[in-house]
Amino acid sequence: MKIFKVGESQKAACNKCQSFENATFQLRDVPFSDGRGIVKNVLVGVCDKCDSVTVLPHQSTPAVKRQYEARRKPVEGRLPAHLIDILNLATLEIGASTDFVPSMMKYYIHKLSEDEKAAKKIAQYLKSELASGRSEKRLSLKGRQIFDDIEHLKALTHIENTTDLLKSIILKINEDVLVKRRSKPIENLRNIMAAVA
Superkingdom of the source (predicted)? Predict the structure, then answer.
């Protein structure tokens, strides 16, 4: 992979000019193709003839990806306080701090979204007494894959409400980690905790 520097140039296809033109690499603010946001100060090839962006070098991809992901909305739900307490207790059970709660939730969401058989069982937790209560606390999850995993999980479980889906996942964590103390999920969580600590 060639690394380009500001001021270097190469021939590139310019859509605006409809021809191959010389493009010089510059730092620019470039809008996303969907028009919702801007990537600030990224290295791009700019057509010397019409001044439009013609090339996004491979080295600029991580910066574009980071800014694109940063604009994604978090997955949020308002939950009863005792469900947040369950998450906090589960993190302590595996030897983590409460900062590990989002990682634990994302692990379960991703794992369940890939296991249709297990996913279909989590709706039963909504019938539990623990699923009820006044929703006073907020849980917010951010990440690259979280939104897609949640949408896929909603389709698998037929739980359309995000808050209800989060409740059922928390109660699955409660059963796995605190009630039945299943060794495989606990070991997996400990390995993830060790990797991100």
Answer: Bacteria
Span 109-144, pLDDT tens digits: 999 999 999 999 999 999 999 999 999 999 999 877
Distances (CA, A) of 195 to 5, 13, 93, 188: 35, 44, 17, 11
Q: Which amino acid is at 122?
A: I
* Token duo for residue 149: 């995993």
Residue 76 tokens, joined: 């949020």
d(CA 9, CA 39): 21
Give the SS3 label for residue 141.
Answer: strand
Verdict on whether the full-model pTM lies above 0.85: no
Closest residue by Cα to residue 10 from 26, 21, 1: 21
Whole-angstrom distance, CA of residue 123 vs CA of residue 106: 18
Question: What CATH class does 9-70 carry?
Answer: alpha beta
Q: Which H or E element spans position 73?
A: none
Both tokens of residue 7?
Answer: 């001021």
